[in-house]
Amino acid sequence: MRERTIASHFVRAALRGGERQGLDCAPLLRQAGIQAALLDEPRARIAPEQFTHLLQLLWTSLDDEYLGLGRLRSRRGTFAMMCHAIIHSRTLDKALARGALFYGLFPEAPGIRLSREGDWVRLSVEDARLWDPDHFLVESLLVIWHRLASWLIGQRIRLEQTSFRYAEPSHASEYALLFPGHRCFCADSSSLLFHARYLAMPLLQDERTLKQFLQHSPADLLARPDSGDSLSGQIRRLLGRDCRHWPDLDGVARQLHMSPPTLRRHLREEGSSFQELKDQLRRDLAIFQLGRDELSIQVIAEQLGFSEPSAFHRAFKKWTGLTPGAYRAQEH
Q1: How large is the average pLDDT for residues 152-171?
Q2: Domain named HTH araC/xylS-type: which ranges (predicted)?
């Protein structure tokens, strides 16, 4: 759903390298339509379009696709040139190997490494040479390589596991959208694990489709979280936008052809619950609607299934740290 929203943590993390380089980020935030005051509220969230715009502005201002978080710059156009270098590969195996070789030509670049583990393949990002205190660049690279590989073969690559070299952060609940599947912290490497069968698949893209793909990438790959075939993503799609007529857990379980206890167990394994999914979807829908002036706050409250505006105000402040009125004012 395009109404998914981005936690303010990722905005702060994206700005960190630019600030370290002495860049005045305030004008960039204004151009992206992001109020600087939102960054002081840990629970605040922004629209994906705003985040995409901010990333593009940062890349342009710094001339660095690593956003100031690497030891050396990766000049704008490097990612596009890598894509042109791999697009004529016959299989995904060849494309990923060529992409890893391409970035290996640059000194101090974070290394991309492919290794086989029986029926599985691990794509690792070597981050020891980064200045990346929030792990924003390494997480971005994992997301970009996963989604690029999926785009190349025309199907979503199912992740068996995503590993991180660092401890679980306080915003770990956001990772379900970025890295569907099992997640492991304090691991030996930051990496993606997926079935090796994908490597033999032919590339379904060409120069023509690549041109369109590069118009918004890699910023768009990062700014539009995609829960893929995770159970959480399926439930969000089943619930839809009309909160007043949402099915209960038993109804959702029937549509997914499983028992309610099984549904609850699978959601626990994904680190979520049915109530948490409904709250997150309500929150994202509320932020999406408040960013548009067509509807009054009272009408939005009714559409979200709140019996009275005051209940909506309390819930929204709990979600974002701001009242609906204050949030709408910040957006303008």
Answers
A1: 91
A2: 229-330
Helix (H, G, I), strand (E, B) or coil at 189: coil
Q: Please, where are the H alpha helices in 200-331? A: 207-213, 219-223, 231-239, 249-255, 260-269, 274-290, 297-303, 309-320, 324-330
What are the start-end ranges of the H helices in the chain?
A: 8-20, 26-31, 48-62, 78-86, 92-104, 136-153, 175-178, 207-213, 219-223, 231-239, 249-255, 260-269, 274-290, 297-303, 309-320, 324-330
Read off the pLDDT of residues 72-101 as tens digits, 9 standing for 90 and up. 999 999 999 999 999 999 999 999 999 999
- What pLDDT, on the 0 to 100 scale, is given for residue 62? 96
Instruction: Report how far residue 264's alpha carbon sits from residue 30's, in angstroms, rounded to the nearest whole number.
Output: 42
- And the tokens for 190? 């930051």
Do residues 92 and 149 lie in contact, with contact meaning Cβ atoms separated by under 8 Å?
yes
Would the pLDDT of 316 be above 60?
A: yes
Output the six-digit token pair for 234: 């399926």
